[in-house]
Amino acid sequence: MAKKIQPIERCDCDVIHEEIVNKVREKMPQEETLYDLAELFKVFGDSTRIKILWALDESEMCVCDIAFLLNMTQSAISHQLRVLKQAGLVKSRREGKTVFYSLEDEHVKQIFDQGLIHISEESK
Amino acid sequence: MAKKIQPIERCDCDVIHEEIVNKVREKMPQEETLYDLAELFKVFGDSTRIKILWALDESEMCVCDIAFLLNMTQSAISHQLRVLKQAGLVKSRREGKTVFYSLEDEHVKQIFDQGLIHISEESK
DNA sequence: AATATATATGAAAGCTTATTCAAGTGTTCA
DNA sequence: TGAACACTTGAATAAGCTTTCATATATATT
């Protein structure tokens, strides 16, 4: 995918590679899109949240069940669930005193799978 | 980040839902796998790194070109390239004084795409 | 109404991380 | 050899994040 460039000895970068930089700049998505993408991956970048998402992919669960499953305080889980909810990754429904959480977006597993492919490639 | 060793108090909820929790626990991947997955997404969770990866997907580039493209100092870019390299996402080759970076893993774009699907779904 | 249970939340502590600055390495060329 | 260039690296600072603790809210039960 990466295009070879001419063997340039000097890097008067701004001048000589200007063409490449301009071409890349044109093809780059909007600043905001890339920012949003980073924000999404940031949410995935914590093992507690990864575990929560993985668990919810298996089954709808209430807060204290998740806390017990992961051996963490209910408060910590609640805080993380809020992050996940704000990211549009999980949703909740109340049933009496209990609040059940479940996945909002079915692509979560697919994002995980792509990540796992990279990890398995790397460990070769 | 550091996890508590002390056991989490179980609520009545846990007793009732014990079956679900046990079922989910069985199906969860290894602790280490989930940790590695989070570490990978953590690397994607920064807009500077996202931009670098996106740029390198378009074309192999040298450090100061990336710095110019993103309007950042060469030092900052160099630090981030090291993170990306350690994650096995980019590779480098030296040509004289210049060091060219390119993508190491062709799945990067696919991971981005999955993320973008989520973002577009969310903005509906 | 009072109490217990399940969850949410605000603030603070403690840790992580991104960028900057200054100094270093490696390469080319006069 | 020395100066210029491209890049790297270590330390420091500042910003951000996760968890804990204490407290608040919502619901059910007696």
UniProtKB/TrEMBL annotation, chains A, B:
Signal peptide: none annotated. GO terms for biological process: response to cadmium ion. GO terms for molecular function: DNA binding; DNA-binding transcription factor activity. It holds the Pfam family HTH_5. The keyword Ion transport does not apply. Keywords: Cadmium resistance, DNA-binding, Transcription, Transcription regulation. Residues 29-123 form the HTH arsR-type domain. PROSITE patterns: HTH_ARSR_1 (PS00846), HTH_ARSR_2 (PS50987). The keyword Transcription applies. NCBIfam families: HTH_metalloreg. PANTHER family: ARSENICAL RESISTANCE OPERON REPRESSOR ARSR-RELATED (PTHR43132), HTH-TYPE TRANSCRIPTIONAL REPRESSOR CZRA (PTHR43132:SF6). This is Transcriptional regulator, ArsR family. It comes from Caloramator proteoclasticus DSM 10124.
